[in-house]
Amino acid sequence: EEIGVDPEIFAQLKAALEHTNDLLIERQISIGEVAFSNNRNIFGREVALQRVDGNAIEGFSAPGLNCAGWTGYRRHWWGLQWYLDECKTQALIGAMGMGASAALIASAMGINIPSDIIAGVLGFGAGWLLTVDGWGSNHGIWILQPYYPPAIWVGAQ
């Protein structure tokens, strides 16, 4: 508070930086992979995108789709940012729909798991991803996963 920063925000920033430092010390990431909010590393050079090869998630195919957008990830000091092109976004939405259907079938068969809840979460999530993807003219999605606090944000590419 003495410097005009909300103590809760400062605590979150401190926790994220400590986590990043731990990853650096344990050699799980290199300093070149750590990007600041302007998407540049500490040496002022652009941080390279970690590309994921291929146009479909293994086991899924999306023939005829426009694979607009790109797939990969970027590490930031505050967490990870994942990108899925249009084909991988559609494959993820399809997999979530299949999972929701399987959970409803399990519920109808009387299997003792919280399958109604699982079906609801997967179904809502698939619908939300479809909506967000549409906002970006079907060019895929990005997913933000901060180290602290644990949360997930989704947006359109």
Strand order of the largest sheet: 1-2-3-4-5
What oligomeric state do these chains adopt?
A: single chain
- Morphology: globular
Give the low-confidence spans: 37-65
Strand content: 5-15%
The level of helicity is 40-55%
Distance between the termini: 37 Å
Order of helices and strands: HEEEHHEE
Mean pLDDT: 75
Nearest-angstrom radius of gyration?
19 Å
Q: Number of helical runs?
A: 3
For this entry, give a set of tags.
single chain, 157 residues, alpha+beta, five-stranded antiparallel beta sheet, globular
List the helices and strands and how they pair.
Layout: H1 7-25, E1 50-51, E2 72-76, E3 79-84, H2 86-108, H3 115-135, E4 141-146, E5 153-156
Antiparallel strand pairs: 1-2, 2-3, 3-4, 4-5
Short recap of the structure:
With 157 residues, the chain is an alpha+beta fold. Helices cover 40% and strands 15% of the residues.
Q: Explain this structure to me?
A:
The protein contains three helices and five strands. By secondary structure, it is an alpha+beta fold. It is globular, with a radius of gyration of 19 Å. A five-stranded antiparallel sheet has the order 1-2-3-4-5.
